[in-house]
Amino acid sequence: MAGSINFRKFLPSNYTFTTGTIPAKLAPLFGPTGFTCTNAAAKLDLKNYGFAVLPAGTSPGDCGSAS
């Protein structure tokens, strides 16, 4: 499609994980108790960059859920 951009970032091969989980090395940042889910400044930054700020939790659709 003309004019569209598709951004993709793949995890390096040293990040091993099971589908539907957050890699252990990334959990402190992206897990339900991680920085991006619990820190007010991080949430505001994400919102200001146009990302949806989700409630922290482990259910599908929550911040920190890999589902």
Could you give a short description of this structure?
25% of the residues lie in helices and 0% in strands. With 67 residues, it is an all-alpha fold. The longest helix is centred in the middle third of the chain and has 9 residues, at 40-48.
Describe this structure in words.
The protein has one domain (21-67). Helices cover 25% and strands 0% of the residues. It contains three helices and no strands.
List key phrases describing it.
single chain, mainly alpha, globular
Q: How many β-strands, per DSSP?
A: 0
Q: Could you describe the largest sheet, including whether it forms a barrel? A: none
Number of helices: 3
Mean pLDDT: 79
By secondary-structure content and strand pairing, the structural class works out as mainly alpha
Q: Rounded to an integer, what's the Rg over CA atoms?
A: 14 Å
Query: Which series of helices and strands comes N to C?
Result: HHH
Q: Which of globular, elongated, flat, extended, rod-shaped describes the shape?
A: globular
**Overall helicity:** 25-40%
Measure the end-to-end span.
Answer: 28 Å
The residue ranges in which pLDDT falls below 50 over 5 or more consecutive positions are: none
Strand content: under 5%
Number of domains: 1
